[in-house]
């Protein structure tokens, strides 16, 4: 029996390898393997190593050859390790009978982390208060028609549920779907193509974008805010009395506010160890999510937000999403052919409520988005039942958002 198991494991791991090698995407095969292995109650350790390997690859393109060699070594290491762990695990699986979801929690804990595990600096309440005012203030737009909250409405999970959002100037509309601001600060990079490093850097973008806030330049906005008594008070509380109203302080304060947009969901409770936080059908969905390899990209505390990946690894995305325009994603910035159609893997928290989906809001129904993902990123056809299961699981990622967070500071 034991030897039969070992044999099965060897075949299985071998199959994983050969399948992924066909797809000659080394980065992905490593992440995939890590995911597949974590399935079998694996190591935090190695998946961290894989992440750093992945990042060094992105950052340090010149030494790609060297890294490829390292990756091969790493793959070998993983294979050997996987044989041991996978086989050992199967053995214990069959000898214990603890119910269907017995190992699910510990597996999930190696793949995802609850919000409470994130080490966040204690927010400065004065900066947060200022940031919240700025977030809701239409004075931050050219004609005074919009605020951050117009497109990232905190009443509706940080989005406007439109395919493309209208800008401040009449008739203008953006070319990408507005992502949610909730939990965005957990991401390693901002925007669909990752072009801003963090929420502070990001905040300057929309203000000066003619299709969004449509402010001419930094000085125009600073002058405008200097005319408002309230802002003299709020800025000097947060940044001291020496010329506090600056564009840098403004983006810093908005960022500080966004860092507080971290409401928790039932999935967090589950990851903290409360087995009863998820229903059995949600657990079943979580299993399908893991087994379908979604975790290769959607893992960690935000279930995404940690890397850029090709949208359409196996097929042209626009043939499945019926997108009218083809967006090259990261390629438009890097002009690197190998980065065509690369987009940030979005986080999946609150995803049930942030339709429409994908960078161009081309897909309205979450079930379609799940089906398309499996097809494009994993070349797998999920059954209707599996799609339903995953969708049920995704609902457990919906945060409980307090009225306090949603309320505009300008309302009395
Ligand atoms: C007119 C609609 C609109 C307004 C107003 C707007 N945004 Fe956005 N926001 C977007 C769109 C569209 C994107 C995605 C653009 C892209 O990736 O190219 C985005 C991206 C973001 C992101 C990145 C999230 C992620 O997951 O990558 C953050 C954070 C954000 N906006 C915050 C803000 C803040 C803060 C303000 C106010 C200063 C603001 N936005 C104003 C539409 C808007
Ligand atoms: C190889 C990486 C990868 C894998 C595997 C993957 N995804 Fe994605 N996912 C992405 C990327 C990249 C996007 C953004 C695509 C775009 O809009 O340009 C995305 C977008 C999504 C979205 C839309 C989110 C939004 O806010 O618009 C959902 C839902 C989703 N994925 C679910 C899944 C599910 C379920 C699976 C498993 C069947 C899965 N993904 C597997 C990379 C991946």
Characterise this structure.
Helices cover 50% and strands 1% of the residues. It is built from 18 helices and 2 strands. It has helices at residues 2-22, 26-38, 44-59, 64-95, 104-111, 125-136, 148-151, 199-208, 218-226, 229-239, 247-258, 266-271, 280-291, 317-321, 331-334, 366-378, 384-395, 403-406, and strands at residues 308-310, 342-344. Residues 16-32, 34-68 and 88-97 have low confidence and may be disordered. The chain is globular, with a radius of gyration of 23 Å. It has 3 domains: 1-97, no CATH class; 99-118 and 265-402, Cytochrome c-like domain (Cytochrome Bc1 Complex, Chain D, domain 2); 125-261, Cytochrome c-like domain (Cytochrome Bc1 Complex, Chain D, domain 2, Orthogonal Bundle), CATH 1.10.760. It has a two-stranded antiparallel sheet. With 412 residues, the protein is mostly helical. The structure holds heme C (2 copies). Residues 146, 148, 150-152, 165, 167, 174, 176, 178-179, 181, 184, 187, 190-192, 199, 202-203, 206-207, 212-213, 254, 258 line the site of one heme C.
Number of strands: 2
Total count of helical runs of at least 4 residues: 18
List segments where confidence is low: pLDDT < 50 over at least 5 consecutive residues: 16-32, 34-68, 88-97
Oligomer: single chain
Beta fraction: under 5%
Query: What name is given to the CATH topology of the largest domain?
Result: Cytochrome Bc1 Complex, Chain D, domain 2
Largest sheet: 2 strands, antiparallel
Mean pLDDT equals: 84
Shape assignment: globular
Give the name of the CATH architecture of the largest domain.
Answer: Orthogonal Bundle
What is the domain total for the residues? 3
Instruction: Bin the helical content.
Output: 40-55%
Q: Which strand order spans the largest sheet, edge to edge or round the barrel?
A: 1-2
The secondary-structure element order is HHHHHHHHHHHHHEHHEHHH
SS content category:
mainly alpha
Termini Cα gap: 71 Å
CA-atom Rg in angstroms: 23 Å
CATH class of the largest domain: Mainly Alpha
Name the ligand types: heme C
- Specify the CATH homologous superfamily of the largest domain: Cytochrome c-like domain
């Amino acid at each position: 029996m034991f030897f039969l198991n070992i044999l099965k494991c060897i075949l299985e791991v071998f199959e994983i390898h050969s399948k992924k090698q066909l797809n000659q995407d080394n980065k992905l095969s490593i992440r995939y393997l890590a995911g597949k292995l974590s399935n079998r109650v694996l190591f935090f350790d190695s998946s961290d190593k894989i992440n750093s390997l992945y990042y060094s690859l992105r950052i340090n393109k010149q030494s790609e050859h060297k890294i490829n060699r390292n990756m091969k070594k790493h793959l070998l290491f993983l294979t050997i390790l996987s044989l041991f762990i996978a086989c050992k695990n199967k053995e214990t699986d069959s000898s214990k009978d603890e119910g269907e979801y017995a190992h699910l929690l510990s597996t999930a804990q190696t793949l995802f982390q609850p919000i409470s595990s994130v080490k966040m600096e204690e927010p400065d309440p004065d900066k947060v208060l200022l940031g919240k005012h700025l977030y809701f203030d239409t004075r931050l737009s050219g004609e005074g028609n919009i605020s951050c909250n117009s497109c990232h409405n905190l009443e509706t999970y940080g989005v406007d549920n439109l395919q493309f959002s209208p800008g401040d100037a009449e008739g203008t509309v953006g070319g990408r779907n507005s992502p949610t601001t909730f939990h965005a600060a957990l991401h390693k990079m901002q925007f669909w193509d990752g072009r801003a490093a963090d929420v502070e850097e990001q905040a300057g973008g929309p203000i000066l974008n003619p299709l969004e806030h449509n402010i001419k330049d930094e000085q125009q906005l600073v002058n405008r805010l200097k005319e408002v008594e309230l802002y003299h008070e709020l800025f000097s509380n947060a940044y001291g009395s020496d010329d506090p109203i600056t564009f840098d302080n403004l983006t810093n304060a908005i960022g500080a506010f966004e860092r507080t947009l971290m409401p928790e969901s039932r999935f967090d409770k589950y990851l903290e160890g409360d087995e009863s936080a998820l229903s059995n059908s949600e657990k079943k969905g979580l299993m399908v999510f893991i087994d379908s390899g979604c975790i290769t990209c959607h893992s960690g505390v935000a279930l995404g937000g940690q890397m850029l990946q090709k949208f359409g690894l196996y097929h042209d995305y626009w043939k499945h999403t019926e997108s009218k325009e083809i967006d090259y994603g990261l390629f438009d910035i890097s002009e690197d052919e190998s980065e065509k159609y690369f987009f940030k893997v979005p986080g999946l928290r609150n995803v049930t409520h942030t339709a429409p989906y994908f960078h161009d809001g081309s897909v309205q129904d979450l079930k379609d988005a799940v089906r398309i993902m499996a097809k494009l990123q994993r070349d797998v056809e999920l059954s209707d039942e599996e799609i339903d299961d995953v969708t049920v699981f995704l609902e457990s990622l919906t945060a409980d958002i307090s009225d306090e967070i949603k309320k505009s500071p300008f309302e009395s």
